[in-house]
Amino acid sequence: MAKMPKMVADWRREKYETKQKLKEEKARRAKLLSEARERFGYTVDPRSKKFLEMVAEIEKEEKKKKKLMKRRLKESQAAAPVTPPAASS
To answer: Which residues contact residue 32 at a Cβ distance below 8 angstroms, ignoring those fewer than 6 apart?
Structure first.
């Protein structure tokens, strides 16, 4: 019984995280559907081959952007080396 408050808190945290993930996934799906509707000019079935190809293409583009941003960040950090502060005597 001593562990009960911790167990309840863990359960509530897990429940909250699960709800957040579902909410984010629904928002992502709605965004993709609206983008597909905008691209094709009509409502697309989320199970259709066209929609799935579009989603794969979008994910591929996002992956490229992340990789490019990471590379640019790395290059900018390498270009501006960090100088240690002067030691006081």
So the answer is: 46, 51, 54, 55, 58
Q: What predicted TM-score, i.e. pTM, was given to this entire model?
A: 0.61
Dihedral over Cα of 44, 46, 51, 57: its sign: positive
pLDDT of residue 89: 54
Q: What does the alpha-carbon distance between residue 29 and residue 8 come to, in Å, rounded to a whole number?
A: 32
* Full DSSP string of the chain: -TTHHHHHHHHHHHHHHHHHHHHHHHHHHHHHHHHHHHHHSS---TTSHHHHHHHHHHHHHHHHHHHHHHHHHHHHHHHSPPPPPPPP-
Structure tokens at 26: 């629904």
Of 39, 79, 77, whose CA–CA distance to 57 is shortest? 39
Question: What percentage of the chain exceeds 90 in pLDDT?
Answer: 56
